[in-house]
Amino acid sequence: MLTVTSVNVNGLRAAAKKGYLEWLSGCAADVVCLQEVRAEEAQLTEEVRRPAGWHARYAPAAARGRAGVAVLTRREPDAVRVGFGAPEFEDAGRYLEVDLPGTTVASLYLPSGEVGTPRQDEKERFMEAFLPYLVKLRAAAAGGGREALICGDWNIAHREADLKNWRANRGNSGFLPEERAWLSRVLGEEGGYTDVVRALHPDQDGPYTWWSYRGRAFDNDTGWRIDYQMATPGLAERCLKAEVERAASHAERWSDHAPVTVVFD
């Protein structure tokens, strides 16, 4: 079995004070992908930076306090790579991948964007550069008899079933037609990846992975499904179980996102 968990921690230092370490100590995953770490390694305490039983790799952003991704693995990775070849995003803290036997696992934090601002332009440039890399990664994996798994916060709700208030968000970043069309390309013939959670839960709304801290969004399950695990075909076929680890109550949340856990044969 290979169990992979992915979660946007909404600031690792803050999450560690709210229950992240307790959650990690009980985590049964072989790999944990983190997004929005928002810290350099030197800013983390030893128990957070190098948790017992894990090999941790980090890709912080050059802009301090922003973005940042990490991958924790039970065994030492065979190789570690930061970025995906796009100069603008090499030190942006948005992509890190590790090689394990037979599989490459990556942690992704795609820009969130904001309509009518430079942030949306950045998001569009990232998507334009990232899809060709995903195609290249899938082809290289297939050529080497390997698989690939891209985990993380993609900041796009793909379908109406992935967003509770989809009608009110049709003009907002994260649910724009062009963003959703881009994700369809990732999951279509061009990209060739599979959204493994949706594949196992094809007919339900959600399961949502992010809820605003405003109002009673979590209590009312007024969420977005923007955290995905996208697998190459051979790996997707071996997906046995996929779930969102939604906290039992608002008070027990240590991030505004919930971990997404997938078990592969």
From TrEMBL:
Please indicate which residues carry the site annotation Important for catalytic activity: D227
Q: What class of enzyme is it?
A: hydrolase
Residue numbers marked as site, Transition state stabilizer: N155
Question: Which residues belong to any copy of the Endonuclease/exonuclease/phosphatase domain?
Answer: 6-257
Which positions does UniProt annotate for Mg(2+) binding? Answer: N8, E36, D153, N155, D256, H257
PANTHER family hit by this protein: EXODEOXYRIBONUCLEASE III
Instruction: Spell out the protein name for this chain.
Output: Exodeoxyribonuclease III
Give the organism, scientific name: Streptomyces mimosae
Q: Which gene encodes it?
A: xth
